[in-house]
Amino acid sequence: MSDDMTIADYLAEGGVLTSPANVPPRYRAELLKLMAIFVDSELAGAAGFADKINDAPGIKERIAAARIVLEKTDHAERVLKVMGEFGVDEDRYANSHPWTARLERDAPAGSERGEHDMRLSVFNYPLESWADAVTMNLLMGLAVGVQMRDFLKVSYGPLAEAFRQIAPVEQRHAELAREGLEKMVEEGRAVEIEASLYYWWPRVEASFGSGTPEKMERLRAWGLRRADGESQRRAWEDQARDVLGELGLKAP
Amino acid sequence: MARFHELKVTQVEKTIRDAVVVTLEPSDPANFDFRPGQYLTFRRDFDGEELRRSYSICAGKDDGCLQVGIKRVDGGAFSTWANEDLKPGDTIQAMSPMGAFTTEFEAGQARHYLGFAGGSGITPVLSLIRTGLAREPESRFTLIYANRGVNTIMFREELEDLKNRFMGRLNVIHILETDAQDIELFTGRVDAEKCGQLFSHWVDVDTADMAFICGPEPMMLTIAAALKDHGMQEDQIRFELFASAQQGRLKKPVKSKQAANTDKLTAASVTLDGATRSFEMDKETTVLDAALANSLDAPYACKAGVCSTCRCRVIEGEVEMVANNALEDYEVEKGYILSCQSFPLTDKLVVDYDQ
């Protein structure tokens, strides 16, 4: 077994890297960035949702909301642990940004909150009512589902393994949101939900990245991405329209 | 975060001509509670330069000891030292076990595991076999083990012992590149064709629950592709890329002979993704911000000095790094900086994100 193969060729053919010792520098940077985006989004998402536990209309909903907060924080920890293997100080990182900070509710879609962290832009907006929180959770939960298809195949083995633990739990969060909306539709609150759908739809849409084609090609060659932002956005849109249709809700 | 702990070497045993099994005793065992298949990262100073190398644990969970296998690599400072100079009584430093090349073994499970190892890639696979067979009395392992010749097979006797101890539950197929065997199929290299033949006559992939592959890059790709062709899913296959892929030795950065100057401008040159761009930058601006302002797509995430995404290497010149909670001393010594926290001190600065 003396074959010589460059790491770049190995990755381009679908190879998996398994420790910080065998990742090339630029791959390392893009991998850390990808992990930072995920961790920051989970922590910011959990921080925003924590407040909503007290708006939950019943015991089941309280439990569901508390569980989502707990599990999203747990997901952040799992990925942060992989970052830790690259030298990141996990404790310091977890407190390095104000995760509850938000923009004004009427800030335009796709706004960056500033240069403070790498959360997806959708987590820059404040949640309003319980119905609003559940609506956002469904739309974003479906988006995470689309993203996870890519993440599960990421070429850094320990991260792919972490995502394998995370994916089914995230999927359950989207299902909980769906069940919550179903209940509210039965209670005749469709108009209120649709107002929230109009608010969140463009904001979730904006969270599918729009990097340059060259960058996408590079990430693809390294096995860090597969689908591009636009095809992910379309997959999400199709799925969201189906789910909302089944609930008898009008998609924007 | 990466922290090193002390271990005492209690035994160094030759397995084949150029490989040793090192038994280690941690000063605090809690730091070394490993999962089978994981690896340890060691560090040692060689002529003033710190080297880090990762080696897989070969002991099983129930063997009551911590052991790693270290095969000597040509020109490899660490592995040569371990093979020639390391002796019982020495102390060595390592980080807590890491890696995801593992699974949960539970007594009630009846599974069929496949292991594929090339050369010293056997090390973590052996840990999995030892643990799995001991902890899951109903499970079995099939190991396909590729080596150049008979005399380069690491742990050959240990595998024979395991076959005897766990009668009928461990099947080992040796594939030898140069030495002829009774069955022609078992001679040569593990390529796509051989995988196809093995899977149609000797190894029942359909009944396999999980596969572990550890070896050089081409072998991992070939076997993974063949397993998928035979219906295995991505999440049933675990990989460990073995140590040959570790980065080579790094040279010291060239220090600029120019004295630090108080002028406000620095002539910067930044290499990223193979392209180099030169521009003038303000000494009050971080290297990262200057690169971004000059439309370089430099990597960053936290901008607070904790995540190390923006790491780059100073080739010439000097910077002041105002915060560093991510790079370790040995990286800083080699000239690595967090570009989000670094301000130029010299009139000329050359940095590289590709190193």
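qc> The mean pLDDT of chain A is 92.
qc> done
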